[in-house]
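FAQ: What does the model actually see?

It sees only this:
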Amino acid sequence: MKFITSMLVVASSIIVPSLGFSSITTELPSAAIIIDDSLFLNEKEALAKLDFPISEDDLIMKAKEYLSSGQGVDRPELLDSTFVFMGPVVGGSDGLKRDAYLEAVGGFKLTESFPDFNPRFHDFRADKLDAGRIWFTTVATGTDNGIGFLGNKPTGKTFRTPPQACSLTFSKEGKVIKYTIGHVMERSMGNTGGLGGIFGPAYAIGKPLPFPEAQPYKPSKRYQLLQLVGRIMSKTKKKKNDDKEE
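And it is asked to produce this:
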């Protein structure tokens, strides 16, 4: 249903000394904002329909507890036995299982490589359509002046990632059953070539990992060809229309 929300009414004062009035105030109609309410999810209603036994506030606290414990590495008991980790690339279609995740993440030693590492987690909120999931954002920063990242010598370079969407999904018992990270929200921001996760810092310090998925986005030859064909067709159509008008 569409409805109209009026903006503030503008009042103007007009000085008319010849009539003996100090001022005349008139109300002028302002522009209206038209909103199509059918486009927007009723978040409160949707969250209530999920009927999850743990409240949004409590889930957010659990998410922060997990992240504060080395993303679960320091407290493996926070992870459910069915836990999976998924990034845009890492983990594949099924994700990394619990033990593989704990081993992999524990081996990166981020804070030892980047002593001032700060993930800057923020904007925690419950998914209104997927029960038990908490979404949050990270814009990580750090300086490569520690032990050296992934076996390389320290470069002294600093990285800043683009905003990345992350999530933690909990069971009804409050255990973490899924952790997703690295989904870049705006690839033009930061200095990691639009890359998130571990790939971003590696690229920013000049030590990119040696496979295409760990490199900045580059259009394929097929896509470039498709774009070229599209431009040619657009120009041809425009020329035909111009010829008709003449």
